[in-house]
Design a protein that fits this description.
Layout: E1 9-17, H1 20-31, E2 36-43, H2 48-63, E3 68-72, H3 78-81, E4 85-89, H4 91-101, E5 106-110, H5 115-123, E6 128-131, H6 143-156, E7 161-165, H7 171-177, E8 181-184, H8 195-213
Parallel strand pairs: 1-2, 1-8, 2-3, 3-4, 4-5, 5-6, 6-7, 7-8
Helix pairs in contact: 1-2, 1-8, 7-8
């Protein structure tokens, strides 16, 4: 999971997944639209075998396109299901998951509510940090706080940072603030437009700040 150059990349978040067959068909169409770096898989409850089967069904679609498949929590299932890693909410969850994930799997850190939390995640060898997503209660930091945190992190630290976009309009400011990746929440699956159309629009918004910053031939 890397930026592959100056162009930031998209990071998709699924809805809580139960019926994998219907979702996999929708996902196939989305992944055909543009470059995607990672897919964060959120799962409804179920027994271990059911969860592993859901993960494997989604991973088969994404991984053949070199898209990293991360689980929302559940680090104990990562290796058994063939996922690429996990996204952990909070420092305690990250630290508890590291023995299960390192050195071969991705350990991402989210729900970082302060600079101190973010620095702790970096010191714990998180592979990326995410800013701006809602917590388990649905509370989200202000967008101004998110862009400020992205700028601070991108200027001082090496691990990549992910900015969470709650709308298409938030994408360009997140890129301008220094996000290496832009996460699109599960809102993309519930818009009037088909998810593939929404993701195509997101890819266009992602490229706009980079194009504006590029020097012209006359410079």
């Amino acid at each position: 999971m890397n930026t592959g150059g100056a162009q930031p990349r998209l990071y998709l978040i699924t809805p809580q997944l139960g019926d994998r067959a219907a979702f996999v068909r929708e996902l196939e169409a989305v992944l055909e639209t543009t470059d995607i770096a990672a897919l964060l898989l959120r799962l409804e409850g179920g027994d271990e075998r059911t969860l592993i089967n859901r993960i494997k069904a989604v991973a088969a679609v994404a991984q053949r396109r070199d898209i990293a498949v991360l689980l929302d929590g559940r680090p104990e299932l990562v290796a058994r299901a063939g996922a690429d890693g996990a996204h952990l909410s909070g420092i305690e969850a990250l630290q508890a998951a590291l023995p299960l994930l390192k050195p071969d799997r991705i350990a991402g850190a989210g729900d970082l509510r302060s600079r101190h939390d973010a620095m702790l995640a970096g010191e714990a060898s998180a592979d990326y940090v995410m800013f701006g997503e809602a917590d388990r209660r649905g509370s989200r930091p202000s967008f101004e706080a998110t862009t400020e945190r992205l700028t601070w992190w991108s200027e001082l630290f090496v691990p990549p940072c992910v900015g969470y976009a709650a709308t298409l309009d938030e994408i360009a400011p997140l890129v301008q603030a220094g996000a290496d990746f832009v996460a699109l929440g599960d809102w993309i699956w519930t818009q009037t437009d088909r998810p593939a159309v929404v993701v195509a629009k997101a890819a266009s918004a992602l490229a706009e700040p980079v194009a504006l910053a590029a020097p012209s031939a006359s410079d």
